[in-house]
Description:
Elements: H1 3-12, H2 21-40, H3 53-58, H4 70-81, H5 103-115, H6 125-141, E1 148-152, H7 155-170, H8 175-178, E2 187-192, H9 197-205, E3 213-216, H10 226-238, E4 242-249, H11 261-271, E5 274-279, E6 303-306, H12 308-311, E7 319-323, H13 326-333, H14 366-376, H15 378-400, E8 405-409, E9 415-420, H16 427-443, E10 450-454, E11 457-463, H17 471-490
Parallel strand pairs: 2-3, 2-4, 4-5, 5-6
Antiparallel strand pairs: 1-7, 6-7, 8-9, 9-11, 10-11
Helix pairs in contact: 5-14, 6-14, 7-9, 7-13, 15-17, 16-17
This protein binds pyridoxal-5'-phosphate.
The site of pyridoxal-5'-phosphate has 14 residues, from helix 7.
Amino acid sequence: MDGFRKEAQAAAEETLDPATWTDVQALSHRMVDDAVGYLRDVRDRPVWQDMPADVKASFEAPLPRSPAPLTEVYREVAEKVMPYPMGNVHPRFWSWYMGSSNFTGAMGDFLAAIQGSNLGGGNHAATFLDQQVVGWCKEMLGFPASASGTLVSGGSMANIIGLTVARNVKAGVDVREHGVAAIERPLRYYASDQVHSCHRKAMEALGLGNKALRRIPTDAALRIDLTALKAAIRKDRAEGFQPACVIGTAGTVNTGAIDDLRGLAGVAAEENLWFHVDGCIGALLAIAPDNAYRVAGIELADSVALDPHKWLHAPFEAGCALVRNAAAHRGTFAVTPEYLEMTQRGIASAHWLHDFGLQTSRGFRALKIWMALKEHGVEKFGRLIDQNIAQGHYLGTLIKAEPRLELVMPPNINIVCYRYRSEAMDGEGLKALNTEIMLRLQEEGIAAISDTTVQGRHCLRVAINNHRTRREDLELLVAETVRLGNEIAAA
Ligand SMILES: Cc1ncc(COP(=O)(O)O)c(C=O)c1O
């Protein structure tokens, strides 16, 4: 093409790239500087603050039709988004169950987006790195190298992967071809009554139905009762159902209880069931020197769900499903349409990673995990897990020593369930008082905790999955819970 034609064509064609990169470069440097300051000073800001009405209203602005300078767009982000986070990167965020992210991981996400690869698969560095991270997950849990795995959005999806392979392997018919209606005897899955709600969603999505997930009673420490499990399996067989899968939980969301995984592996082997472990909270205990013993037996599972966006603190989203029998895993999801056939050479000359899950296009979520693991080494992540568990136990002793507070369940790992007590109140009154404490802790920006009900008792719940938390933060939480409780009770 001659110079004149090239120029004329360039003038006519549009692109999303900037007309000149110099301004973008300067602004990007500012964004990175701001980002560093944001994390450096996170401790000085409130954990959470509600948005003023005008900020909330700004999110109802209509679809932008004409351009705005990027500096202006960034100004809006800096003013309207960054000051109002959920709060989970803050040292005193302990609500529900999340990791607290990390700067290197955030840079990983940025670089992954810049490189822009699609992890549907193919012959390029990102897919090899993705499989390396999956391999590291196997290694951390003691899974065989021959197992397969896939990075997904989080624990809920990782559990769905495991439960789907279990269904297809145990159905006795070709479910992929004929559907669940062709299954002769209805399948039954088993988990403790503490099982995470994502399993219910999975059972519903798999077409097996919520009722097919039998909730087995738990012991005093909220671990699945193996005798009750065996009895339930026997009863189901006698009634014409087909026991298919047992789900062990390594770290329940309410209290961090860890089922007897070796015991469950034994029952699964005796009864010919698939053994899946929901290790979203606790699978990574396997790398924590002082606490690895708690998940002994996880390496015996047929499939495991783990969550790098929890105890590896990967920025959202990052979950991982591992499956011992790689052929069964691939056999559950692989489809090869004519437009996705492998080639001998070139970009399509490596296995498609979309054969191991439900997504076709996949993000390059491995890079953020890879970079942070390389930077810190797995041993540091293991020590941080031990640190969070020691902090959980420390908080337990602080609560025990405080007459106005009571532990609702002795801490097992890093989850502490407690409540403010008042002689004058119980039941709904006490729940309202404790709920008010929780809300004021959030609204005053002091700490983010959540609540739950354990063995019928409503309580405040602190899940310390946070590499920024210090013991002084927990001391503050106890002092502020008592202050607020006293104030509310006296009002
Ligand atoms: C035990 C357990 N399983 C599954 C999940 C769901 O994981 P995700 O939120 O990553 O989808 C959670 C979330 O906290 C959990 O605690």
